[in-house]
Amino acid sequence: MILRHKLLLAQMPLALALLLVGVVAVNTLRELGRAGQGILADNYRSVLAMQDIIEHLERLDSAALFIVAGERQRGLVQVEANRAPLETTLRIQEGNITEPGEAEATRRLSEAWSRYQTRYERFLGQEEGGARGVYFETLAPGFQAAREAARAILVLNQDAMVRKSEAQQRQSQRVNVLMGLAVVGALAGGLVASASLTQRALRPVGVLSGAVRRLGEGDLGTRAVVEGGDEIAGLARDFNAMAEALQRYQRSSLGELLQAQASAQAAIDSLPDLVVVFGVEGGVLNVNRAAEEALRLSLEGGGMLGQVEPEVRVVLERVRAHVLGGKGAYLPTGYEEAVRLEAPEGARWLLPRGSPVYGEGGGVVGATVILQDVTRLRRFDELKNDLVATVAHEFRTPLTSLRMAIHLCVEEAAGPITEKQADLLHAAREDCERLQGIVDDLLDLSKLQSGREVLELRPVSTREVLEAALAPHRMAAEDKGVRLREEPDPEVEDTRVEADPERLQLVLSNLVANAVRHTPREGEVVVRARRDGEARIRFEVADTGEGIAPEHQARIFEKFYRVPGSATGSAGLGLSIAQEIVQAHGGELGLTSEVGRGSTFGFSLPRSRRDEQG
Question: Can you give the residue ranges of the HAMP domain (predicted)?
């Protein structure tokens, strides 16, 4: 039997119960209707008959009074009009005896009518003078007796109607109670039977559900035992076949999976760098041996980062959030992102990298964070910076002497010079000035990278910063035919930022100088400050120059890097120094550029706390 038939069969008791209640209700209502009809057909007919008889008797009495009053002909007509109907109605009543005592009352009425009729005949035979006496002596009492007999039958039937109506009402109440009990009983029985049959029909579903739950918990040996040939039994057989296949697959593939897992873990453990694998929820899924030893991180402790040093934990959480946030792989921008980790053999510097782990559907299901040991490389970079700083510092003394000697020669302090010699000396002096600027930039960059340069932060007006950055370059811009202007913003005109004014002016001055240098005649350089959220102010330097190709934008802030084909006159240190200064202020120098349409350099600085409180 298929499942649909079983479920239909389970509903049959309820349907039969409802059918039984309906049949009982119809029969009961039919009986009540018949009882009501009996009251109307029997007692009501007698009531109507008695009312007609009383009316005819009264009309006969009225006819007698007409005769007494001298209207004999009118009285006789009325006598003939009422005697025959009264006889007919009396015959009907004699054939409609339904109540106890009604037959005796009807007999008395017949006798009273016979006596009244005899006396009426005698009354009609009297002359006008004697009719009055006969009426009052014999006819009037006979009329009263006949009418009282009719009224007795009328009252008898009316009482019977009231009694039967009350009995029918009581019977209706009993029927209502019985019907209510029958409905409740039939519904309860039908529900119990239906529930029992439904439970029996759906019991295999529970067996199958339990088997599925145990299979989901890893019990591949579980089986669903369901007898029958319906759909659930077929599903149970399919489930058992699936469980059998999974069990065989587990037996055949478990060893291979374990071997593959062991091989992968051995490969990760063999890496000298620290490897931490995070799940999509942020918890640690796996670590290699190097990470366990260096970070004191173990999966047995729940994979939490609480035991990791705070600086390293911040880096791990930042890289993890970047990768799991769907931003792709995390690549460091330089050695300055390396984090210091104390170790028994000395301090180590770790450079973070992050890669997403993709699932079968292509979505990110985890993140792998690698902390690369760059201690030696960082030391080499520090040695290189120290060497550059030392060389630049040593250059200053001979360079100063050379500048002084060239200046004295140009001023002819050592004797007269020719015009050609003067041109050569002027060119040499310009190159010395340029070399002096490069040496100063190298020393500034070395101080910034080594952390020896301490910023003197204080509230600085944005208007003053912009004016100080534009003033030194107005002459050069006019000579080149470039419009140099400030774009005021009323919202930040009187706003102050928390910065080192000299260093901030150096950054903006460098950006303006580059913009003027790379903007053609009739071009424009705009310097502006605008609100960046509630707590920061963004400075931007935009030009309409040649722009920077996308392949060069990623390296534009590297030391000594110059875009191929650009005009000479720079050693490629200005943007690197500007980036270091902005980063020291807690910001990041950014670039948006399009070839042939110009470039926009910008960075954000925090507003002064006094402005925020105001």
Answer: 199-251
Structure tokens, 355: 């890669």
What is the number of domains present in the chain?
Answer: 4
Q: pLDDT at position 258, please?
A: 56
Domain boundary among 343, 372, 401: 372
**CA–CA distance, 528 with 6 (Å, rounded to integer):** 81
In this prediction, residue 458 carries a pLDDT of 87
CATH number for the domain that contains residue 526 = 3.30.565.10
Q: Which helix (H) or strand (E) segment is 532 a member of?
A: strand 524-532
**DSSP string for residues in 66-85:** HHHTT-HHHHHHHHHHHHHH
Q: What is the dihedral of CA 19, 23, 28, 30, to 10 degrees?
A: 140
- Has residue 284 got a pLDDT over 70? yes
Q: How does DSSP assign 543-597, residue by residue?
A: E-S----HHHHTTTTSTT---TT--SS--S-HHHHHHHHHHHTT---EEEEETTT
Same structural domain for residues 166 and 296? no
Please name the residue that has the structure tokens 């935009």.
542
What CA–CA distance (Å, rounded) separates 400 from 422? 19
Residues in the chain: 614
CB 367 within 8 A of CB 326: no
Helices 375-410/419-450 angle, 10° precision: 150
| Three-class SS state of 527 | strand
Strand-strand pairing, 598-606 and 590-594:
antiparallel
Question: What's phi and psi for 361, nearest 5 deg?
Answer: -85, 0
Same structural domain, 327 and 400: no
Q: What whole-number distance in Å separates Cα of residue 527 and Cα of residue 470?
A: 8
Q: What is the DSSP letter of 608?
A: P
Instruction: Answer whether residue 200 is part of any domain.
Output: no
Res. 35: pLDDT tops 60? no
pTM for the full model? 0.41
Backbone dihedral region of 560: left (phi > 0), alpha (psi from -120 to 50 degrees) or beta? Answer: left
| Tokens found for residue 566 | 């650009």
435 residue type, one letter: L
Pair 353, 490 in one domain: no
Half-sphere exposure for 496 (CA within 13 Å, toward CB):
16
**CA 155 to chain CA mean position, Å:** 80
Provide the percentage of residues in the chain whose pLDDT is more than 70.
77
Task: Determine the residue type at 461.
Answer: S
Pairing of strands 483-487, 524-532: parallel
Burial class (CB in 10 A: 0-12, 13-18, 19+), 394: exposed
Kindly report the backbone phi and psi dihedral angles of residue 454, in degrees, each rounded to the nearest multiple of 5, phi listed first.
Answer: -100, 125
Alpha helices, DSSP H, located in 270-305: 289-295
